[in-house]
Design brief:
single chain, about 110 residues, alpha+beta, Nucleotidyltransferase, domain 5, four-stranded mixed β-sheet, 3 helices, about 40% helix, globular, Ribosomal_uL18_bac-type, rRNA-binding
Length: about 110
C-alpha cells in the first residue's frame, strides 16, 4: 500500500512530464500545506520564479476563501509583470477545494489557462 505522499509524487511526476512553463506562458504551480497555500509562476526554461504569492499574513476567512485571495493576488502580480497566459500545475493535488478556489480566483483576476 502506498502512502498519500507517494501517491501525490507519482501524480506530480506524471503531470510534470506534460506541463512545462516558458517566459511567455509560465507554469502556475500550487503548494498546499495544512495551514498555508502558496502559488508560483515559474519559467522552466530559465529555472526562475517570475511571480509568487502566499497566504502568509492572511488570517480572516476559511481556507477556501483564503486560497481565493491568494489566487487573486497572484493574478494581479502576474498582470503587473505582463503575464496574461499560464499553464496550470496542480502539483499532484486533486482539482477541488482550495486548489480549485485558487484557480477560479486567478481566472477571475484575468489569467487565462
Amino acid at each position: 500500500m502506498i502512502s498519500k505522499i507517494q501517491r501525490r509524487n507519482k501524480i506530480k511526476t506524471r503531470i510534470r512530464g506534460k506541463v512545462s512553463g516558458t517566459a511567455a506562458r509560465p507554469r502556475m504551480t500550487v503548494f498546499r500545506s495544512n495551514k498555508q497555500i502558496y502559488v508560483q509562476l515559474v519559467d522552466d526554461q530559465e529555472g526562475k520564479t517570475l511571480v509568487s504569492a502566499s497566504s502568509k499574513g492572511i488570517e480572516e476567512g476559511t481556507k477556501i476563501e483564503i486560497a481565493a485571495k491568494v489566487g487573486k493576488a497572484a493574478a494581479e502580480k502576474a498582470l503587473a509583470a505582463g503575464i496574461t497566459e499560464v499553464v496550470f500545475d496542480r502539483n499532484g493535488y486533486l482539482f477541488h477545494g482550495r486548489v480549485k478556489s485558487l484557480a477560479d480566483a486567478a481566472r477571475e483576476g484575468g489569467l487565462k489557462f
